[in-house]
UniProtKB/TrEMBL annotation:
Keywords (A to Z) from UniProt: Membrane, Transmembrane, Transmembrane helix
GO cellular component: plasma membrane
Coiled-coil regions, chain positions: none
Entry's transmembrane regions: 24-45, 51-71, 83-103
Domain of life assignment: Bacteria
Protein name as it appears in the record: Putative membrane protein
Amino acid sequence: MDYYIKCITEKYVDFEGRASRSEFWYFVLFNFIAAFVINIIGAILSNVIGVAAYLGALYSLATLVPNIAVAARRLHDTGRSGWWQLIGFIPLVGAIVLLIFFIQDSSFERNQYGPNPKGSGISV
């Protein structure tokens, strides 16, 4: 949960540096859970309040930039530019390639995007 809060508050528009696998995947997990809960609440309240149907869309819009930023930092951690996210626009193949990039371990040494977020430079 700390990674999610950190990405939403401190690193909202931070496209510099590197994000470890755990930072990225915990952010994805808690973002998915939050979106799921907000969509359920919006569906329940949409019968009462018409605006509530748009809660999920508003949440998605609010977290668009942090999603792109944490993905860029995760790609930096594997030694790739954040622009590699654009490969996701290629149907099916792009998503598979991005998933492989996101799953890969950190590059152990310092790269052009900064030091290893694991600190020691040794993979555990």
